[in-house]
């Protein structure tokens, strides 16, 4: 993705689809997820794109460190549909993450509301746009 484009993941008729939007700078994971939470634009909806990510009242936050994005959810993973988890993981992985790894190798760690753990559920975005467990390889 070029510095003047941001990639968001929405649900299409045949699974997850990427949508590119213009931007004036590489987006942080927080900026990318904020745009995802706003849902598809009119043009994206006209292409049949929707979102499974529920409204989260501005309580979702994200931060990046080399090759990793931490996503802090106001819900648990089990509260989300599979497509929503993939939308979040793939949008976060395709944002401006330091470290230089390809998006499919970026670790996305989900910190769930009400679950205190030092080992959050980790996923990555596979090349087809699905969140799969992160195994470190």
How is this structure best described in words?
The chain is of the alpha+beta class. It has one domain. It has helices spanning 29-38, 42-46, 82-93, and strands spanning 5-12, 15-22, 61-65, 68-72, 107-111, 121-125, 131-133. The strands form two sheets. A five-stranded mixed β-sheet has the order 3-4-5-6-7. It has a two-stranded antiparallel ribbon with strand order 1-2. A hairpin with a 2-residue loop joins strand 3 (61-65) and strand 4. Helix 1 crosses helix 3 (82-93). The relative contact order is 0.19.
Describe the structure concisely for a colleague.
Helices cover 20% and strands 28% of the residues. The protein is an alpha+beta fold.
Main sheet makeup = 5 strands, mixed
Mean pLDDT: 90
Strand tally, please? 7
Shape: globular
The succession of helices and strands, N to C, reads: EEHHEEHEEE
The unreliable regions are none
Give the strand order, joined by hyphens, for the main sheet.
Answer: 3-4-5-6-7
Structural class: alpha+beta
Characteristics of this structure?
137 residues; alpha+beta; 5-stranded mixed beta sheet; two-stranded antiparallel ribbon; 3 helices; 28% strand
Topology readout:
Elements: E1 5-12, E2 15-22, H1 29-38, H2 42-46, E3 61-65, E4 68-72, H3 82-93, E5 107-111, E6 121-125, E7 131-133
Parallel strand pairs: 4-5
Antiparallel strand pairs: 1-2, 3-4, 5-6, 6-7
């Amino acid at each position: 993705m070029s510095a003047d484009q941001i990639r968001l993941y929405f649900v299409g008729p045949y699974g997850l689809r990427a949508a590119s939007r213009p931007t004036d700078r590489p987006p942080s994971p927080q900026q990318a997820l904020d745009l995802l939470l706003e849902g598809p634009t009119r043009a994206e909806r006209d292409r049949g794109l929707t979102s499974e990510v529920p409204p989260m009242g501005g309580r979702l936050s994200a931060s990046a460190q080399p090759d990793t994005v931490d996503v802090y959810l106001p819900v648990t993973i089990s509260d989300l549909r599979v497509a929503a988890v993939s939308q979040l993981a793939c949008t976060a992985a395709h944002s401006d993450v330091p470290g230089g790894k390809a998006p499919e190798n970026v670790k996305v760690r989900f910190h769930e509301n009400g679950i205190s753990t030092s080992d959050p559920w980790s996923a990555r975005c596979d090349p087809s746009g699905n969140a799969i467990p992160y195994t470190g390889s």
